[in-house]
Amino acid sequence: MKVVCVMRKVWVFLALSVVLSPHELYGFDVREGFSEVVKETLPAVVSVRVEKEVEVAGGGGGLPFGGRVFPEGHPLFELFDKFEWPQGNQQPRQRKGVADGSGFVVRSEGIVVTNNHVVEGADSIRVTTQEGESYDAEVVGSDPQTDLALLRLEGVEGRMPVLVFGDSDEAEVGDWTLAIGNPLGHLGGSVTAGIISARNRDIRSGIYDDYIQTDTSINQGNSGGPLLNADGEVIGVNTIIFSSGGGGSIGLSFSIPSNLAKLVVAQLLETGSTQRGWLGVEIEDVSEDVSEALDYGGRQGALIARVLPDSPAERGGMKDYDILLRFDGKEVPNGRRLPLIVGLSEVDSLVSVVVWREGRERELRVRLGERGTSEARYREESEEKEVRGAKEEGVGGGLGFRLGEITDDLRRRLGVSRDVVGAIILEVSRGGEAESKGLVVGDIIVEVDRRVVQDVEGVLRGLREVESRGSGVVLLKVRRRNGRNDVVGLRLKQ
């Protein structure tokens, strides 16, 4: 039966290929390739050259005569010294360096999109078109968190050709893509083709990871150039490659989706900076143990480990241990995805938030704040320091950790404020339950079973109460050494 079905599909395809043209089958004429698209889009793609101060390491690299090729007094000593041959025992020096990237025009008066990492720290920027015309450029605004920057070309006469943004949400895995750029810094106007390999890629490069992955050949120097669909619309801004040892493409390239780029570019054009929505929560993924303890039964959503005081979330009625399921009508798949969804929302907008709490869904209304302003008052990071000399008071109920009281000395060395109470982890057993769930020395247990604990005895008492009820999982709220709070579910031994 399966063979018959497959053969039937093949015959249908062959029949269609006779009746329909290549354009109707594939969306473009495969006999002509992408030549027409390239003719329309290539003139709007530019090369970007940046000069900046770079640090050059000193050291003689094992050369004789104190790191010099020739001893002082030798006829060739001054020649090699003049051209800065590596010298022994030198401190790092600042020298002018050159970096190359790509970009594309989005406004006919000479507004160019590129990557922030291409122009960051630039002393001067020179942009060259496909026709060989060069312009000095200034940075209108940049956004390091999405790695986007906007340039304004100086002395543009007339109207420059432009590219238009498409809808990256409509792009599907398997769709054709084109990349145009300036690989290796001197091959401007290079065009490569491939397909979309994956969408919504999180490669742990930042909190707004949402990349389009493509096998289109992208190399060093392509950063900031456009990723186009078969209609010539920009669906991504090329930004990251995973390369071979020599820096060449291995078919793993990542682009910022156009729908994210459009929002950032619009804000940079208007104000020169970006604004992002802020909820005011510390979040994490929903683990299997936490899901069981909260009677949820699923893994989708973002667990609220802590609601920050006087934040939009607190004012909107959100609570610790809520599982955020939907935000402004959008599904929240996990904790990593939520900052992107919130960050792209309009500041001061009133949004619907659906959470799981006490066995059922609840809908709340939250008015968003602005990330980077109000948030900064509540987020303090403490220094990474070793935990020594604490008084050992108890063992965590066979869960694989040893606890101690938070002494004044520990508070001072770890930067822990007086309002943080609980018990500090002094030792984590290798191979134990605590280690498997990521607990480390220096973490502070501040809540057990959703109740605040004051000291080691409070932690142990809470563990005993959970065990006496016959619960299989205990929830701990843990203050990490970087200042954030996580909720950890530990499975009790039966």
Structural write-up:
The chain has 494 residues and is an alpha+beta fold. It folds into 4 domains: 25 residues, no CATH class; 207 residues, Thrombin, subunit H, CATH 2.40.10; 94 residues, Pdz3 Domain (Roll), CATH 2.30.42; 100 residues, Roll (Pdz3 Domain). Strands 21, 22, 23, 24, 25, 26 and 27 form a 7-stranded antiparallel beta sheet that branches. Strands 1-2-3-6-5-4 form a 6-stranded antiparallel barrel. Strands 7-8-9-12-11-10 form a 6-stranded antiparallel β-barrel. About 7% of the residues have low confidence. The chain is elongated and about 80 Å long. It contains 13 helices and 27 strands.
**Beta-strand proportion:** 25-35%
Supply the number of structural domains.
4
> What's the CATH architecture of the largest domain?
Beta Barrel
Radius of gyration: 29 Å
Under CATH at level 1, the class of the largest domain stands as Mainly Beta
What is the assembly state of the chains in this entry? single chain
Helix content: 10-25%
Sheet having the most strands: 7 strands, antiparallel
Q: Please, how many helices?
A: 13
Mean of residue pLDDT?
80
Principal-axis shape equals: elongated
Q: Structural class of the secondary elements?
A: alpha+beta
Q: Which consecutive residue ranges, at least 5 long each, have pLDDT under 50? A: 9-14, 59-65, 374-397
Separation, N- and C-terminal Cα atoms: 51 Å
Per DSSP E runs of 2 or more residues, the count of β-strands stands at 27
- CATH fold assignment of the largest domain: Thrombin, subunit H
